[in-house]
Structures are given as C-alpha cells and as structure tokens.
Amino acid sequence: MGHESQTEWGWSIAIEIFCGGTAGGAYILSALPYLIFGSTIFLTGVVASLFLVCISVFVLIAESTSLRRVPRAFSNIKSPLTVGAISLSLFILFSTATVAIPHKGSATGALSIVVWLAVAASLLTIIYPGILMSFMKGIPLWGGSGPSFLLLSAALLSGSAVVTLAGGMGRLNFSLSQVTLWGLVIYGFFLFIFIVTGGRSSKTARISVQWLIKGNLFLLFMIGVIAMGWVVPFTLYIVGMVSSSPPLLHIGSCLILIGGILMRYSLMAAAVRMPLLSDDSITPTYWRYH
C-alpha cells in the first residue's frame, strides 16, 4: 500500500478548529486589560469570540455522523475529544457570563473568577486539536508538539485580528497593532519550524511537506498561507503602523483570518498516512467510536 492522504478531516474540521481557536485568542486579548491592568473588558471582542465558538460547536455537531454519538464526546474520558467538547461548552458558559455580569450590574465580585475560568477554557479550546492530532501516530506530520504550538500561535494571531476588526484599537491598555505584529513574527517562526522539522522527519512526513511546498497544495499553501496570510499582512502592519493608517491594519487583519483558515485546511489536506497501518490504528475518526 502506498502513501495516501487522510480524507476524514477536511474543510469542515478546518473551519471548526479555526473558529474555536480564534474565539479563544479573541477572548484572551479582550480580557487582558482587565486581568493585567484592572481596566474594563473589551466586551465587543468577547461577543465576537462567543459568536465564533458557537459556529465551531455548530460545525462540530453537523459533522457528527450521528446526533446520538454527540453525548459520547462528553463521556469518553479516554478521548482528547472529550476535553475539546467540555472546553467548548465551558467557554460558551463563561464568555456569556462575562458579558452578562457587567450588563446586569450584579455579582460583579465574581467577574474576576469567571474571567480566569474563561481564559482557562479558552486555552483548552485552542490546544486540544493539537493534542488530538498528536495521538494519531499513523500521520507523522501531526506527531509531536509541533501542531500544538503552531495552532496556539495561529489562534492568538487570528484572535488579535478579530479584536482589531471589532474596534479594539485604542480601546485596550496596550498597543493592539504591536501585539498583532509580534503575533505574526511568532506564528511565522512556528510555521517555519513546523515545515523544516517535517522535512527532516520520516519519509511519510517529508511527502506531506513536499505536497505543501511543491505538490498539489503548492498554490493553496505558498500563496494562500505564506504570501497572502503572512507576508502581505506583515508588510501592511508595518506600513500601517508607521503611517498610522487603520485601513491598512484592517486589511491586514482580514488577510490574517483568510490565511488562518487556509493554514488549518493545509494541515488537514497534507496529512499523509503511513502505509500498511493496522486496523486498530488511531485515525481522525478513531475517537468517534472509542
């Protein structure tokens, strides 16, 4: 048997991971002024994160082969998918409370606890896909901690872009544009390390990397992810910060989001299986039935 790409995870899972991770990143950045400086929470950013995580949950349920299997996502303690289902649910609960408490003007003393719990749920929402991938030993590209760090940096970057588009510039106690620029640097670093590490790994992982940089995913990855999703936004942010041009920053943020979705899909589409896998190998559909 030759090398074949996995087909269980496609655009829908890429969108689910993107929306969930971006929601987590947007919430964390929106809550930072409150947690660090004791200032107000950027509630518009929290609402945006709540909207995104609801999309993530909707896609996750729609992708399920049977609605009867949805409760198993909360009861199978052996599965990292359970961590994801619980974190998404808690994220919705705590982010809703974050918006409701200041609006109602009651239980304001509990706000700090709610925000810290929401940040914890946000982090779990961001990192659980990478943990889930690392269990799939039959797909070397997803092995190790590389996907987790890549998805974490991408989630914080896209979250920063969402907060920017939601009007966060000038509303936070730090320079959001500088945070986004540094986010681009860190994301670019982890993306570079991910590609270099994969290119020097097993034969199967090298095939995955070749698909990304030379093969049938070349246009999607090199132009969509690298050029449009990183190089152009990085340039626009530098020019926009020097010239104090918010429109350039907004365009750069939109491109960051587009590139973020394409990166998640590239990560799915380039996942090549090792040949001659046993029947009980952990695959992208394994956790649905175990």
Descriptors:
disordered C terminus, Formate dehydrogenase/DMSO reductase fold, mainly alpha, 11 helices
Please, what is the CATH homologous superfamily?
Formate dehydrogenase/DMSO reductase domain
The number of E-state strands comes to 0
- Specify the overall morphology: globular
Radius of gyration: 19 Å
Q: Low-confidence runs (pLDDT<50, min 5 residues)? A: 286-290
What portion of the residues fall into strands of 2 or more residues? Answer: under 5%
Number of domains: 1
> Can you identify the CATH class?
Mainly Alpha
- Helix share bin: over 70%
Largest sheet at a glance? none
Structural class comes to mainly alpha
Describe this structure in words.
By secondary structure, this protein is an all-alpha fold. It has helices at 11-37, 43-63, 72-75, 80-104, 111-134, 146-165, 176-199, 203-213, 218-243, 246-269, 286-289. The chain has one domain: Up-down Bundle (Formate dehydrogenase/DMSO reductase fold), CATH 1.20.1630.10. α1 crosses α6 (146-165). The longest helix has 27 residues, at 11-37. The model is unreliable at 286-290 (pLDDT under 50).
Helices and strands, with pairings:
Layout: H1 11-37, H2 43-63, H3 72-75, H4 80-104, H5 111-134, H6 146-165, H7 176-199, H8 203-213, H9 218-243, H10 246-269, H11 286-289
Please outline what is shown here.
The chain is mainly α.
